[in-house]
Design brief:
five-stranded mixed beta sheet; 5 strands; about 190 residues
Amino acid sequence: MYAYKIEKLAELEKLSQHSLIDLFYGDESHVSSEGYVPYGWQFPNEKVSIYLEKGHKINIFGLISRQNQCYWAITQQNINGQFVMGQLDELSLKIKKETFVVLDNASVHHSKIFQENLLIWQQRGLFIFFLPTYSPHLNIDETMWRKLKAEWLIPEDYLQKNRLFYAANRCMANIGTYLKINFSPFNVN
């Protein structure tokens, strides 16, 4: 199944490169008052800290293409099947040509309400492609989340809930203009 899915994803990538379809990768993530510290180092006896307000979390659903076209929604509520369905339904009304959205196998992507809308979206030209299980390395959206948390947001953004909400929204709005990601070509090796 993995090899089959890779082959089909490669076909979608090729169609997208020739502008025959639009291809987006989607995922959910969050930023929280706990900040993002992927790694770090310090001198012996040096104290390092990030000051922040505890207790807030901002959830984001995002779609991105290799050309840095981005659709997103930010909320303080939990992201569930209804939320994702609403975002994809809204996208399905805006598309100009056949559009494929690549998603992982999160339970919100397989919820009843999500599944009930697949046929409606297909009639509008929006198709969902599910990645093979346990393959986040194939989802370029993961790169967007890493860059958001590790590069685009600064430690001061985490100090207050409103500031973090504004900063995350500002970053997402600037993808494709001031903030660009140079995605490597699709390669399974």
